[in-house]
Amino acid sequence: MFHKKTLATITISAALAATSFSASAETEMVVVSWGGAYTNSQQKAYHEPYMAENSDIKIINDDSAAEAVAKLRAMNEAGNVTWSLVDAVASDAIRLCDEGLAEEIDFDTVLAAAPDGTPATEDFGELIVSDCFIPQIVYSTTFGYRTDLVGDNPPASIADVFDLEKIPGKRALEKRPIGNLEWALLADGVPVEEVYDTLETEEGLDRAFAKLDTIKDQVIWWEKGAQTPQLLADGEVVMGSTYNGRLFSVIEEEKQPIAMMWDWQVFDLDGWIVPKGAPHMEEVMKYLKFATDTQRLADQAKYISYGPARASSAPMVGQHADLGIDMAPHMPTNPENAKNTLLYNYEWWADNRDDLDERFQAWLAQ
Amino acid sequence: MDNNSSGDAVKNAFVQFKDVQKSYDGEVLVVKGLNLDIAKGEFLTMLGPSGSGKSTCLMMLAGFEMPTHGEILLGGKSITNIAPHHRGIGMVFQNYALFPHMTIFENLAFPLEVRKMSSDQIKEKVSKALDMVRMGGFESRRPGQLSGGQAQRIAVARALVFEPELILMDEPLGALDKQLREQMQYEIKHIHESLGVTVVYVTHDQSEALTMSDRVAVFNDGIIQQLATPEVLYEEPKNAFVAQFIGENNKLEGKIKSQLENNLCEVELAGDQVVTALNVQNREVGAETSMSIRPERVVLNPQENQVDNMASGKIVESIYLGDHLRLNVRAFGEQEFVMKVPNATEHSSLVEGTDVGVGWRSEDCRALDPFIPI
Amino acid sequence: MSTAEALVTADGTPLKVSLARATRRSKIRALMLVVPLFVFILITFFIPIGDMLLRSFQNELVGDILPKTVKALENWDESSGELPDETVFTAMAEDFKVAAENKTIGKVGLRLNYEKSGFSSLFRKSGRRAKKLEPPYKEAFLEIDKKWNDLEYWRIFKRESAKFTKSYYLAALDVGYDEAGNIAMKPEEKQIYLNLFLRTLKLSLLITALCIILAYPVSYLLSTLPANKSNLLLILVLLPFWTSLLVRTTSWIALLQQEGVLNDLFVWLGIVSDDGRLAMIHNQTGTIIAMTHILLPFMILPLYSVMKTIPPSYMRAARSLGATPLTAFVRVYMPNTVAGIGAGSILVFILAIGYYITPALVGGTEGTLISNLIAYHLSTSLNWGLAAALGTILLGLVLFLYLMYDKIVGIDNMKLG
Question: CB of A132 within 8 A of CB of A272?
Answer without folding.
Answer: no
